[in-house]
Amino acid sequence: MALICSGCTTKQQVGKAKKEPPQSIHTEKPKKDGTVISMKKIKPPAGTSSIDAYRLMYWSDGLKVEAYVATPKGPGTFSLAVYCHGGWTIPTEVSHLKQMSGEGGLVKFDSSLLNGAYNNLVTIAPLYRGYGNSDGKVEGIYENTRDTENAIKAVMNYFNSKKETRHVQDFLYLEGWSMGGAVCMRVVAEREHVKSVIAISPFVGWNLFNTWEQENKYNVNWFSFYYSSIKAYGQFDPNNETFKRQSVPYEKIKAPTLLIHGTSDQTVPWQATQFLYTKMIANHQDVTLKLIEGGNHGLTNKWDELGDIIYK
């Protein structure tokens, strides 16, 4: 999947909010979670001419949240692929974040998130609150998971309406990058009917990361990560409900899980992903870990190796 989301970085570029274009359908009420506000057909990203692309706005916790959707051109019933981009792992005062720069390169929060979308699945890429044209400020894993769940609900509501010839069945494939890996795994932990989840250069959630970090205080990058969570959520306690909300309940994951990480990642430590892997193995969960030697965050310098793992 040609989707580069490098998130979890302190380097960012914030763009100005764009004026909202006219929408093909529009409704302001009710503000029920997962209700479609607008669904506008847009030009597909370059190289994806076999799909139809849409810009979706929907309600999530009373906020207007943006997502991008790709569908096969013809009628049929399709499974749903959910792509979760990377970003900040703690709340910030940033809103309408248009792009981020980091170790893996520049990530734009727009229709380019659909690059490489499959032509036999319906695909949704939610932007979460605070990103792109979504309302609100950038939040943490829990809130991003809420927006992802409501995006799934919105796209299923839309395509399963009587007027649509394309329908979405409740079978999900999830793929997340960096912070989006934690979002995907949290979604999987809360749902049934998930076929598989792929987490690439994933952040593993604050409980696991901080537990690992307390035993490995040898790298200033990871140590600063640890203190950023304390600044945001208070003194770390794995039993603290605030930290639990911003973590991955990995014990509940039932779907086959593929973890992929580069050993030269300077943004998110691969050792924390290995720590998650050992926990899941101990629970007899269906999990595979693939470490790519010399891979950076997002594995943009090991694209062929990443493709071989995902597609084989």
Mean pLDDT across all amino acids: 89
pLDDT under 50 segments (min length 5)?
1-7, 9-25
How many whole angstroms does the radius of gyration measure?
18 Å
**Helical fraction:** 25-40%
Order of neighbouring strands in the sheet with most strands:
1-2-3-7-4-8-9-10-11
Largest sheet properties: 9 strands, mixed
Order of helices and strands: EEEEEEEHEHEHHHEHEH
User: Which term fits the overall shape?
Assistant: globular
The count of β-strands is 11
Helical segment tally? Answer: 7
Q: Alpha-carbon distance between the termini? A: 12 Å
Strand coverage percent: 25-35%
Give a short overview.
26% of the residues lie in helices and 26% in strands. With 312 residues, it is α/β, with parallel strands linked by helices. Helix 1 (141-159) crosses helix 2 (179-190) and helix 3 (206-214) crosses helix 4 (220-233).
Description:
The structure is a single chain. A hairpin with a 2-residue loop joins strand 5 (99-102) and strand 6 (105-108). This protein is α/β, with parallel strands linked by helices. A 9-stranded mixed β-sheet has the order 1-2-3-7-4-8-9-10-11, sandwiched between helices. Mean pLDDT is 89; it is low at 1-7 and 9-25. The protein is globular and about 55 Å long. 47% of the residues are buried. It has helices spanning 141-159, 179-190, 206-214, 220-233, 241-245, 270-282, 303-311; strands at residues 36-42, 51-60, 63-72, 76-84, 99-102, 105-108, 122-126, 166-177, 194-200, 257-262, 287-292.
